[in-house]
Amino acid sequence: MKNILLIGGTGFLGSALARRLVKADFCVTLPTRRPERARHLAVLPTARLVQADVYDEASLAQLMIGQDAVINLVGILKGNFQRAHAELPGKIARTAKAADLSRLLHVSALAAATDAPSNYLRSKAAGEAALRAAFPEATIFQPSVIFGRGDSFLSLFAGLLKLAPIVPLACADARFQPVWIEDVVAAVIASLDHPESRGQNYPLCGPHAYTLQQLVAYAGQVSGHPRPIIGLPFAFSILQAFLMEFLPKGPMTRDNVWSMQVPSVCPAGCTLPFGRTAMPLEAIAPGYLAG
Q1: Beta-carbon neighbour count of residue 122 at 10 Å?
Q2: Does domain 3-143 have CATH number 3.40.50.720?
């Protein structure tokens, strides 16, 4: 297996995965509508940026010619969830099956469910179902929130704490089990060498669970900007998110609030697949938050 089509490969997770795939001697094709925004990947020796619309099935079919495997990472936190999370995986699975690709890997989300309270989580579940219907042997990964250098999670909190004298925090009791980006990348790549991963779902979590308030406080402590944190009740969390929706790059929406009503944690005793040991947050975050 040599040629990988990486869809959604120009963002935070995709960039890390592309670098590791190239380092492992894979040839990676990265479709994007705006190649100028992915110049940081153009320097990778066996990566190829292709201008394409992955939502168009004819374009997808062309992209899959000559590929051995396709990896889908497309995910959004606001916008048309049905199109990105539900319809697109179905299109990818159908075209991959028609192209007779040997492997299809898909990154979904922990706690995705048809009866989840948020559009985000319901659409992720719909995407998994569409994928399985067309390509039953697909491998699905379901990470909790992903952290690492360049993330929009701990780094976002650290940036906000630097500016705010006090933090009114929505969903302060929401629970997460953050997983390091390199652990996610390693699991995805390792699955290509493990035939038993076909048709499997893998939840991906770090070794410890935290409340959102604990994570925000930790980001402040490590970055050198500790601040008082005031947890907001649900009604005020919804109100705060509603107001943030009017900001061009608002960090939260009402749908995010609904997503956080479901703990993003793995079952007790769950470990990373393929024998990897998850790195704790405390061993990694200081390296990119401090200073």
Answers
A1: 22
A2: yes
Contacts of 6 (CB under 8 A, 6+ apart): 14, 17, 18, 21, 28, 29, 30, 70, 71, 73
Per-residue pLDDT of the chain in tens (291 residues, 90 and over written 9): 599 999 999 999 999 999 999 999 999 999 999 888 888 888 899 999 999 999 999 999 999 999 999 999 999 999 999 999 999 999 999 999 999 999 999 999 999 999 999 999 999 999 999 999 999 999 999 999 999 999 989 999 999 898 889 999 999 999 999 999 999 999 999 999 999 999 999 999 999 999 999 999 999 999 999 999 999 999 999 999 999 998 877 789 999 999 999 999 999 889 999 999 999 999 999 999 986
Structure tokens at 220: 């402040």
Instruction: Say whether pTM exceeds 0.90.
Output: yes
